[in-house]
Amino acid sequence: MLCLFVSVLLIIGVQRPTSVHGVPARGGDKKVVPKFTSHGQTFRAVIGDTLVLPCEVQDLGAFVILWRRGSAVLTADKIMVTRDERYRLVDGFNLEIGNVMPQDAGDYVCQIGDGDTRDQIHTVEILVPPSVRTSPANGQLTTRKGGTVTFECKASGNPVPTILWSRKDEPLPSGEKASEGFQITLEKVDRHQAGVYQCTASNGVGEPVTVDMQLDVLYAPEVEVERSWVHSGEGYEAQLVCIVHGEPQPSTVWYQDSFTLEPTERRTMDSRGNKHTLTIRNVQSRDFGNYSCVAENSLGKSRKYMELSGRPSPAQFRSPPYSTSKNSYNLTWLVESYPPLEEVRLLYRKLMLNDSYQQPGKWHDVVLQPSNGETFSHLMSYTIRNLESASVFEAIVQAKNRYGWNEVSDLYQFYTRGPGEHVYDFPADPNMKDMELIAPSSSSSHTFHLATTSFVLALFSSTALHLT
Ligand SMILES: *[C@@H]1O[C@H](CO)[C@@H](O)[C@H](O)[C@H]1NC(C)=O
Ligand SMILES: *[C@@H]1O[C@H](CO)[C@@H](O)[C@H](O)[C@H]1NC(C)=O
Ligand SMILES: *[C@@H]1O[C@H](CO)[C@@H](O)[C@H](O)[C@H]1NC(C)=O
């Protein structure tokens, strides 16, 4: 009924029944024309907001104001045509829309039924905070090592949200902190890529939405040993450590040679996270030997060996590689041994120095009287004399106790000063640390030695020059 009435009003360019068309203006017979004092605007509202669309008219006279949305009439004069109770007229003919919804977006027309004045049009945009749909829907992916996985986040909202991928507490496998796009693909995954990935959708409306996605990577066990050579002595305690990774969680078993080890009074095995420790108390000579830990899960098996030994540890060199002298060098090293050392040998030789002559010299063999102090750590030193100046040497130290000779130490390089260089003891020189890093501790490559040596010597000379 009401609609019909309004349609009629619309068609005939309505007048109030009580008024006359064209109210006379102050003096004169000019007709007063109604005029909008508000302007057509664009309104942005977040869902749930209350919105007021102005429609202010001067000199309305007898005309009627209509609010339309498309062809649907919402109000006619003071009559609510729409049944939607969220609409109200406030302060005259301003249209209030309560609890706005996405479907309220669109153009709203305020019309003066004079058939003359142009309509006033407001555009309403509804801002919708982001929401996210993920694939897989439960946010959980499991794959085998080496596989490729894709997580997806589809976001809706207005404006269209942007999606950023990140990883909880660490950078993405690509090294980036975050990457944009509705999906993220991880290739050749391994255990380092497992964990929680997050997609965050934001569009400036409300709070960004973050969804956690979990990647589980299944892989055969990977075993590392903390030390492949462990030193101990009879009556002392020894600890052997294996680090085991694997998914599903592997079982780990300890072996001595080919025999499975069970806990005993002297022997315990414990695991903390990935770390598996075999502790042997009151070590006996039969405990020395070859140990291994074997980790196994449904995807495979892995084993790593280590040796528990009573022999002295390989020598660790402690003297700085640069002599303070032109023709001697005080070599200092540390050897660990529980039983007393029986014999210590030092071998050294000159290395090549210039481009035309690259052959190392003959080995010099020095047999030393071991110093046996109170501790298991044997700090020893020997001053090598009659060395050529401005030269490079390498040294090896071997030590023997009642269990035998130790593993041969790494080759250690040291340098004598050149002629004209001032003798200067500069342990506090900050360059010293850099130099020590430059010096290789083992003789792996001939050419590498040459290059490093000249470089180090150059540094050395320039430091010395600088001091004069
Ligand atoms: C232990 O024994 C295995 C098998 O005989 C061998 O391959 C490995 O090198 C040994 N490891 C050590 C640390 O002695
Ligand atoms: C060699 O160096 C060690 C350790 O710094 C020191 O104890 C020893 O006295 C030095 N020997 C000589 C002959 O300077
Ligand atoms: C290179 O070193 C060798 C051995 O020390 C020496 O005989 C030779 O003269 C040196 N050559 C040059 C170009 O310094």
From TrEMBL:
GO terms for molecular function: axon guidance receptor activity. Keywords: Immunoglobulin domain, Repeat, Signal. PROSITE patterns: FN3, IG_LIKE. Residues 1-22 form the signal peptide. Residues 313-419 form the Fibronectin type-III domain. SUPFAM superfamilies: Fibronectin type III, Immunoglobulin. GO terms for cellular component: axon; neuronal cell body; plasma membrane. Pfam families: I-set, Ig_3. The keyword 4Fe-4S does not apply. One of its GO terms (biological process) is homophilic cell adhesion via plasma membrane adhesion molecules. InterPro entries: Cell_Adh-Cytoskel_Orgn, FN3_dom, FN3_sf, Ig-like_dom, Ig-like_dom_sf, Ig-like_fold, Ig_I-set, Ig_sub. The keyword Signal applies. SMART domains: IG (SM00409), IGc2 (SM00408). Residues 34-127, 130-212, 221-309 form the Ig-like domain. CDD domains: FN3 (cd00063), Ig (cd00096). This is Ig-like domain-containing protein. The lineage of its organism: Eukaryota, Metazoa, Ecdysozoa, Arthropoda, Hexapoda.
